[in-house]
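Aim 2 progress update. The chain analyzed this quarter is reproduced below.
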Amino acid sequence: MKKLISTLGHLAKALAVAAVVSSPLMAVQNVRAGNENVIEGRYDKSSGAGFVLMVSLKRAR
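Predicted structure tokens:
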């Protein structure tokens, strides 16, 4: 009888973990993209300094 209760406890924990892991996947399937969600505006070009800094830091290692 103790083994059955222990097994049911493990099953409940496994179901809870599965629900937590699968909930973001279910939410993504329900999201619909459309034209009304586009944020329009004028964007200036980046100087690229971040990329140059990243490459120089990799070479420094």
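The chain is about 65% helix and 0% strand. The radius of gyration is 25 Å. These observations will guide the mutagenesis experiments scheduled for the next reporting period.
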